[in-house]
Write a structure and sequence with these properties.
By secondary structure, this protein is mainly α. The protein is built from one helix and no strands.
């Protein structure tokens, strides 16, 4: 049981790290889109 709990915690930690990385990628993409549309409006 202890081993299972440990691997579960590792999975949760890994998922959180991946989510943070994904959020950063999304923010970068959103910035690019904002810049594109801002430039188009001018």
């Amino acid at each position: 049981m202890k081993r299972l709990q440990l691997s579960f915690n590792e999975l949760v930690k890994k998922n959180k790290e991946e989510l943070l990385a994904d959020q950063k990628r999304i923010e970068i993409i959103e910035k690019r889109l904002d810049e594109k549309y801002t430039n188009l409006k001018k």
